[in-house]
Amino acid sequence: MAEALAKSPPPPSPGQLAFVESPAYKWWVTWTMMLGAFLFALDTTIVNLAIPKIMTSLSADLNQIQWVLIVYMIGMAVVMPTVGWLSDLVGYKWLYTGSLALFTCSSALCGMAWSPHSLIVFRLLQGFGAGAIAPTSMAVIFRVFPPEQRGLALGINSLGWTFGPILGPMLGGYLTEMISWRMIFSINVPLGIIGVGMAVTIMAADLSDRRPRRLDLLGLGTMATWVVTLLLALSRGNIEGWNSQYILSLFGAAGSFLVLFLVVEIYVREPLIDLHLYRNPTYATATLVGGLLSFGLYSSGLLVTLFLQDFLEYTALQAATLMLPGVLLSGALSPLAGKLSDQLNPRLLLCFGFLTSAASTYWFALMDLRTEGATIVWAQVVRAGINFVFPPLHLLALRTLAREEVGAASGLLNITRQIAGMGGIALATVLLERWHYVHHLTGSEHLALSWGGVEPTQRALEGVLQSGGDAGGLLQIKVQAALSRYLTQESLAIAFQDTFIVVTLIFAAAAIASLCIPGGMGKKP
Question: How far apart are CA 509 and CA 488, in angstroms?
Fold first, then answer.
């Protein structure tokens, strides 16, 4: 089977050859990759707001519904490290096409799920399909574009990366509220069919060097085990308790298998992942910056969604309206950021993008219940500056690597970002809940400082309610309910502010780290 897949593809027809050699070919490939990147990024966030409807429709409990989210990440984590080996085996064209086809078919199955268990299985298949899409798209762009145009191409491709996570919560909430939760999966099908058709007809079959090698099964097993156990710990920690035996065991297993994986990859003849990639200081530092990016991006995305819909009580459609200007600006900035990456020092663009993200999250840290919608819109507009990060980061990370290293390196970069993103979500959730609890406990002190004591506040509320006709026991119940609601809102507002400050510091650290990425003037693929 491997030998059959590894055979050289048939030569292209004269018409195909003329198209591949035309200047327009590489741009058609970029748009093809962008569509896959959009679907990949969209499904990392679109499901979250549909969870309550899915639970009701499929009679699922909280434990089952958590697995709907977790197995998607697990599926991607298992596939991403194998991208280098798979591309050597079947070539980038058929790896991308097959992955997108699997993603599309499994999306259709998810939309037809009849039970929690069937949805979990179909989401795992969807994760398998998504795992190779992002790293393959970056590797293909590096193959078809000359070095002086890669920044612009990555900027266009990052439109998918940008729109996906931003539109995910809004689109998921809208489709769930207005149509059905099944539409959040079914919407992938027509786009996926178009993407597969474009990949089959546009992409050339000789986009990789096709040097089949043995699969490092021991490396794959240990890699998959430590990544899966780590993702499980990060996903379940807030539910099971971070000090629980289950979570501590998962972290211990993740650490043990990580060490075992490193030992295997050092001594095996044909490793799954060439750890020598990290000897390249440009790639190693860019990977660190990419981890900080995902850590801040995923955590801030979760916080903004919770702040708008749970705290300020906007509907999904209202939140989408407030975020729309920022989304539109993101679309305009991505190609510009890519073009500038080809002309300016990419590190400066990275620093600028992280600083605008830090400014946006700090702005959110200043908001409360009295915040107007216009302020949120402008904060989202500033947040669009994150688009100046994606093209230069990928450009810096991969441009000093040899041609045959780009596929494996892009897969490794993406799995690092996925793990960091899960860590960001876990940290944001833990800090928000912890600080909400702490500030609620000290709520009486806040009242005493801001109102001159609880009793005057209580008497003022009693006077207002008495003027409306309330009296006796009902009056006291309403007073206590009003005070409790006030304490809850104020403590939650402060918890949001504190957590946004932490994310601001993460983006600031990423801005500093981005300036430390080495020059990267070595060999180019």
Answer: 32
